[in-house]
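A quick word before the example. In earlier lectures we treated sequence and structure as two separate objects. From today on, think of them as two lines of the same record. Here is XdhC family protein written that way.
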Amino acid sequence: MENLDVLVLRTLRDWRIAGRRALLATVVRTWGSSPRPVGSIMALAQDGSVVGSVSGGCIEDDLIYRFTQAYAGRGEEKAIPSGPPSFVKYGVTADEAHRFGLPCGGTLELLLEYDPDPQGLAELVTSLEQGKLVRRTVRLSDGAATIEPADTPSDLAVDGERMANTFGPEYRMLLIGAGQLTEYLATMALFSGFAVTVCDPREEYSGAFHVPGAKLVHEMPDDVVLSFRPDRRSCVVALTHDPKLDDLALLEALQTEAFYVGAIGSRRNNDARRERMVEHFDQTEASLARLRGPIGIYIGSKTPPEIAVSVMAEILAVKNGVPLPRDMDVAQAKNSLDVQPNDPGTLVCGVPER
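And the structure line, produced from the sequence above:
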């Protein structure tokens, strides 16, 4: 599954190039709880086709009804929407919040852009497809939009004159090892909007790996990390349990801006990995501070799909800047429960104990 923003903008571009009337809705403010964060976007075509989301569904339904009626010249809004962008609020009253399925006390405000310029959209989509980080600024007086390169991601900003929203390339995940756990984790990552690359030079594993949408490569993992060039929207996860494959790849990943670098394994294996890196690769506790392991959050997972859920949850928490309680850390939780790691080589439900 591709990045949702790119999908929305590409679809809107195609509608506009084909001459279809359409609008772009952006969540610009929220108060209290809200279903979707600020910066979320949705595109709506004149025939009611919609892509993206600004809520749990009810607000989308209202927008579809209001503007398809307007395009058809029926209902309260018979004029075809056009002109400068406009703001609309949902959930101002308790009754309205309930009607639109907003959480208790939730209110959100949307900016609606009518018939965005197709050439500007094409330029924006091209930049995103090339992996660029782009800031799009909309002038509220007339809806004119400009795009410019952005050095760092930033939150949506809106004032009385303009709205600026930063769009970045899709998040990427590099998985070392093509085993069963990788298949589950790759599938979850794809549905979470990550572009997934799986690296495994071992024919006995890579030959059986098949996850539609994931790219499979066969070079040595450390070389793949170098060519992958992880950035702040990338994560690298080692899943082979083989130091010859995992260690060098992890060391290369730690030299990058990847927001998450981690490896599967038990507490004992994790400690042994750190000792190897200090003894043989001149690493220090400081240089290994970003290395996560055992990875995942503690949910008592034993099977490959459960472990994949645990790992994906931790990756998403780190991506979204959510601090995790210490008692959800795998090592901390197991130490607190006084659960001893299994002996090396022992399997639990077909996967090594973490």
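Notice the following. The radius of gyration is 24 Å. We will return to this example when we discuss secondary structure assignment.
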